[in-house]
Amino acid sequence: MFDVDARSVPEGESNDVDDEPSTLGEKRLARAVVGGLVLLVAALVGLVFLLVLLVTVAVFPGAVKLDGLAPVFWALLLLAPCSVIAMAITVPTRRLVRVTFTPSPAVARLSDAAFGWLSAFLVGVMLLEWTPLVHAHSVLPAVAVATVGLVLEPLVERVGGSKAKGDQGGTPAR
């Protein structure tokens, strides 16, 4: 409909659309946006963890004692390192089991669920032991949190999977 010729484009510029930031200001803005998104996601994960922590303390009042509000912040700070340590243990072992035994799809899902539970349990135990001002008298809260995560995982996958399938089929074929 419209014909754009070379005379309508200012000299030194091209018709190509460039999504990459080109100036220093654009690069700083892009970094700030990415940093803000990372902080937002970290805050949401932290809030979910806080909710799980508070529910666990309420359900098992004799198993865990918190000395004030500071342990909550310590636990949020220690969550990432504990997760990395747990994954450093479980991921290689999971891959070794997969390569060594070459399980059927059903056994592979069961194995993944077992290693997922073990990873969540290890994170829970490390947080109970390493968080300052937390006095844990039992590992029952770590078992409960890992088991709840194991039970909720298929539900989250179904909800996330149905949204992803709905997004893929949005444009009809012609």
UniProtKB/TrEMBL annotation:
Transmembrane parts of this sequence: 37-60, 72-93, 114-133, 139-156
Keywords of the record: Membrane, Transmembrane, Transmembrane helix
Ranges of biased composition (kind: Basic and acidic residues): 1-10
Domain of life: Bacteria
Region feature (Disordered): 1-22
Keyword Transmembrane carried by entry: yes
Chain segments annotated as coiled-coil in the UniProt record: none
Stated name of the protein: Integral membrane protein
